[in-house]
Protein backbone atom coordinates (compact mmCIF):
# COMPACT_ATOMS: atom_id res chain seq x y z
CA UNK A 1 0.00 0.00 0.00
CA UNK A 2 2.97 2.33 0.54
CA UNK A 3 3.99 2.03 -3.12
CA UNK A 4 2.94 5.02 -5.20
CA UNK A 5 3.67 4.62 -8.91
CA UNK A 6 1.66 4.66 -12.10
CA UNK A 7 3.73 1.62 -13.13
CA UNK A 8 2.75 -0.58 -10.19
CA UNK A 9 -0.68 -2.14 -9.64
CA UNK A 10 -2.25 -0.54 -6.58
CA UNK A 11 -2.64 -2.97 -3.68
CA UNK A 12 -6.03 -2.47 -2.05
CA UNK A 13 -6.11 -5.10 0.67
CA UNK A 14 -4.40 -8.20 2.00
CA UNK A 15 -5.49 -10.84 4.48
CA UNK A 16 -5.19 -14.49 5.53
CA UNK A 17 -8.27 -16.68 5.16
CA UNK A 18 -9.51 -19.01 7.89
CA UNK A 19 -7.78 -21.84 5.99
CA UNK A 20 -4.45 -20.02 6.10
CA UNK A 21 -4.43 -18.89 2.47
CA UNK A 22 -2.84 -15.51 1.83
CA UNK A 23 -4.84 -13.14 -0.38
CA UNK A 24 -3.69 -9.92 -2.03
CA UNK A 25 -6.36 -7.70 -3.58
CA UNK A 26 -5.10 -5.26 -6.20
CA UNK A 27 -6.54 -3.02 -8.86
CA UNK A 28 -7.72 -4.67 -12.06
CA UNK A 29 -5.20 -3.97 -14.84
CA UNK A 30 -6.83 -4.22 -18.26
CA UNK A 31 -4.41 -5.41 -20.93
CA UNK A 32 -1.99 -8.14 -22.00
CA UNK A 33 0.96 -9.20 -19.91
CA UNK A 34 4.27 -8.46 -21.62
CA UNK A 35 5.05 -12.12 -22.30
CA UNK A 36 1.87 -12.55 -24.35
CA UNK A 37 2.24 -9.08 -25.86
CA UNK A 38 5.73 -10.03 -27.09
CA UNK A 39 4.47 -13.34 -28.47
CA UNK A 40 1.60 -11.67 -30.32
CA UNK A 41 3.66 -9.13 -32.26
CA UNK A 42 7.10 -8.02 -33.35
CA UNK A 43 8.59 -5.65 -30.79
CA UNK A 44 11.43 -3.38 -31.86
CA UNK A 45 14.44 -3.06 -29.55
CA UNK A 46 13.46 0.56 -28.94
CA UNK A 47 9.96 -0.43 -27.85
CA UNK A 48 11.34 -3.20 -25.63
CA UNK A 49 13.69 -0.74 -23.94
CA UNK A 50 10.82 1.71 -23.40
CA UNK A 51 8.78 -1.03 -21.71
CA UNK A 52 11.72 -2.04 -19.51
CA UNK A 53 12.30 1.61 -18.60
CA UNK A 54 8.73 1.81 -17.28
CA UNK A 55 9.30 -1.42 -15.36
CA UNK A 56 12.44 0.14 -13.87
CA UNK A 57 10.51 3.21 -12.75
CA UNK A 58 7.95 0.98 -11.05
CA UNK A 59 10.65 -1.09 -9.36
CA UNK A 60 12.40 2.01 -8.03
CA UNK A 61 9.11 2.99 -6.37
CA UNK A 62 8.73 -0.54 -4.97
CA UNK A 63 12.23 -0.45 -3.51
CA UNK A 64 11.76 3.05 -2.09
CA UNK A 65 8.76 1.68 -0.20
CA UNK A 66 11.13 -0.92 1.31
CA UNK A 67 9.72 -3.88 -0.59
CA UNK A 68 11.42 -6.64 -2.57
CA UNK A 69 9.26 -7.91 -5.44
CA UNK A 70 11.23 -11.15 -6.04
CA UNK A 71 9.27 -12.31 -9.10
CA UNK A 72 9.96 -9.73 -11.80
CA UNK A 73 9.28 -11.15 -15.28
CA UNK A 74 7.30 -10.14 -18.39
CA UNK A 75 4.29 -12.25 -17.40
CA UNK A 76 4.00 -10.22 -14.16
CA UNK A 77 3.76 -6.92 -16.03
CA UNK A 78 0.52 -5.78 -17.69
CA UNK A 79 0.57 -3.33 -20.61
CA UNK A 80 -2.42 -1.05 -20.09
CA UNK A 81 -3.57 2.01 -22.01
CA UNK A 82 -1.63 4.09 -19.46
CA UNK A 83 1.60 2.09 -19.77
CA UNK A 84 2.97 -0.92 -17.92
CA UNK A 85 1.92 -1.97 -14.43
CA UNK A 86 3.88 -4.44 -12.31
CA UNK A 87 1.60 -6.99 -10.63
CA UNK A 88 1.82 -10.05 -8.36
CA UNK A 89 3.27 -9.41 -4.92
CA UNK A 90 2.72 -13.02 -3.92
CA UNK A 91 6.35 -13.67 -2.89
CA UNK A 92 7.38 -10.09 -2.08
CA UNK A 93 9.10 -9.26 1.20
CA UNK A 94 9.33 -6.21 3.42
CA UNK A 95 12.82 -4.76 3.56
CA UNK A 96 14.86 -2.93 6.14
CA UNK A 97 15.76 0.16 4.14
CA UNK A 98 15.86 1.68 0.66
CA UNK A 99 18.64 -0.69 -0.36
CA UNK A 100 15.99 -3.28 0.54
CA UNK A 101 18.02 -5.89 2.30
CA UNK A 102 15.58 -8.37 3.83
CA UNK A 103 17.52 -8.28 7.11
CA UNK A 104 17.49 -12.06 7.46
CA UNK A 105 18.04 -15.19 5.42
CA UNK A 106 15.00 -16.05 3.31
CA UNK A 107 14.13 -19.18 1.33
CA UNK A 108 14.39 -18.95 -2.48
CA UNK A 109 11.26 -17.73 -4.26
CA UNK A 110 10.40 -16.62 -7.75
CA UNK A 111 10.78 -18.14 -11.22
CA UNK A 112 13.95 -20.09 -12.07
CA UNK A 113 15.17 -18.33 -15.26
CA UNK A 114 14.87 -14.95 -13.50
CA UNK A 115 16.55 -15.90 -10.19
CA UNK A 116 19.84 -14.22 -9.28
CA UNK A 117 22.65 -16.44 -7.92
CA UNK A 118 22.33 -15.12 -4.36
CA UNK A 119 18.75 -16.42 -4.24
CA UNK A 120 19.94 -19.88 -3.24
CA UNK A 121 21.85 -18.51 -0.22
CA UNK A 122 18.89 -16.48 1.04
CA UNK A 123 20.86 -13.24 1.52
CA UNK A 124 18.95 -11.01 -0.89
CA UNK A 125 18.48 -7.30 -1.47
CA UNK A 126 17.10 -5.05 -4.23
CA UNK A 127 19.69 -6.31 -6.72
CA UNK A 128 17.77 -9.56 -6.98
CA UNK A 129 15.17 -7.53 -8.89
CA UNK A 130 17.91 -5.93 -11.01
CA UNK A 131 18.93 -9.39 -12.26
CA UNK A 132 15.33 -10.32 -13.11
CA UNK A 133 14.85 -7.02 -14.94
CA UNK A 134 17.98 -7.76 -16.99
CA UNK A 135 16.65 -11.17 -18.03
CA UNK A 136 13.32 -9.51 -18.88
CA UNK A 137 15.16 -6.95 -21.02
CA UNK A 138 16.80 -9.72 -23.03
CA UNK A 139 13.53 -11.63 -23.37
CA UNK A 140 11.60 -8.61 -24.61
CA UNK A 141 14.30 -7.63 -27.12
CA UNK A 142 15.04 -11.11 -28.51
CA UNK A 143 11.70 -12.82 -27.95
CA UNK A 144 13.04 -15.66 -25.81
CA UNK A 145 15.02 -16.32 -22.66
CA UNK A 146 18.83 -16.02 -22.85
CA UNK A 147 19.15 -19.83 -22.55
CA UNK A 148 15.76 -21.14 -23.70
CA UNK A 149 16.57 -24.85 -23.83
CA UNK A 150 17.72 -25.30 -20.24
CA UNK A 151 15.61 -27.53 -18.00
CA UNK A 152 14.96 -26.83 -14.34
CA UNK A 153 18.00 -28.81 -13.11
CA UNK A 154 20.36 -26.99 -15.49
CA UNK A 155 18.95 -23.60 -14.50
CA UNK A 156 19.41 -24.41 -10.83
CA UNK A 157 22.99 -25.60 -11.44
CA UNK A 158 23.78 -22.31 -13.21
CA UNK A 159 22.29 -20.31 -10.36
CA UNK A 160 24.20 -22.25 -7.69
CA UNK A 161 27.46 -21.90 -9.65
CA UNK A 162 26.81 -18.17 -10.27
CA UNK A 163 27.74 -18.57 -13.93
CA UNK A 164 27.70 -15.54 -16.25
CA UNK A 165 25.74 -15.85 -19.47
CA UNK A 166 27.89 -17.15 -22.37
CA UNK A 167 29.39 -14.60 -24.77
CA UNK A 168 27.45 -15.97 -27.75
CA UNK A 169 24.21 -15.01 -25.99
CA UNK A 170 25.33 -11.39 -26.05
CA UNK A 171 25.88 -11.60 -29.81
CA UNK A 172 22.10 -11.78 -30.26
CA UNK A 173 21.55 -8.18 -29.16
CA UNK A 174 22.83 -4.70 -29.97
CA UNK A 175 26.14 -3.86 -28.28
CA UNK A 176 24.64 -1.15 -26.06
CA UNK A 177 21.79 -3.41 -24.94
CA UNK A 178 24.28 -6.24 -24.37
CA UNK A 179 26.34 -3.97 -22.15
CA UNK A 180 23.29 -3.09 -20.02
CA UNK A 181 22.22 -6.76 -19.88
CA UNK A 182 25.71 -7.75 -18.67
CA UNK A 183 25.64 -5.11 -15.92
CA UNK A 184 22.18 -6.10 -14.74
CA UNK A 185 22.98 -9.83 -14.83
CA UNK A 186 26.41 -9.62 -13.22
CA UNK A 187 26.73 -12.78 -11.06
CA UNK A 188 28.77 -10.89 -8.45
CA UNK A 189 26.08 -8.96 -6.62
CA UNK A 190 28.56 -6.38 -5.34
CA UNK A 191 29.25 -5.36 -8.95
CA UNK A 192 25.58 -5.34 -9.96
CA UNK A 193 23.84 -1.94 -9.81
CA UNK A 194 20.67 -1.06 -7.97
CA UNK A 195 17.84 -0.19 -10.36
CA UNK A 196 17.76 3.39 -9.04
CA UNK A 197 21.34 3.79 -10.30
CA UNK A 198 20.52 2.73 -13.88
CA UNK A 199 16.93 3.94 -14.31
CA UNK A 200 17.86 7.21 -16.11
Indicate the overall shape. Answer: globular
Relative strand content: 5-15%
Q: Say how many strands there are.
A: 7
Unreliable stretches covering 5 or more consecutive residues: none
Judged by helices, strands and strand pairing, the structural class is alpha+beta
Query: What is Rg?
Result: 16 Å
Kindly report the spatial arrangement of strands forming the biggest sheet: 3-5-6
Distance between the termini: 25 Å
Count of separate DSSP helical elements: 7
- The averaged pLDDT comes out at 91
Bin the helical content: 25-40%
- Summarize the helix and strand pattern as letters: EEEHHEEEEHHHHH
Q: Let me know the largest β-sheet.
A: 3 strands, antiparallel
Describe this structure in words.
- A three-stranded antiparallel sheet has the order 3-5-6. Strands 1-2 form a two-stranded antiparallel sheet.
- It has helices at about 35-40, 45-65, 125-140, 150-160, 165-170, 175-185, 195-200, and strands at about 10-15, 20-25, 30-35, 65-70, 75-80, 85, 95.
- Helix 2 (about 45-65) runs antiparallel to helix 3 (about 125-140) and helix 3 (about 125-140) runs antiparallel to helix 6.
- The radius of gyration is 16 Å and the shape is globular.
- The protein has seven helices and seven strands; from the N terminus they run E-E-E-H-H-E-E-E-E-H-H-H-H-H.
- It is an alpha+beta fold.
- It starts with 10 loop residues before the first strand and ends with a helix.
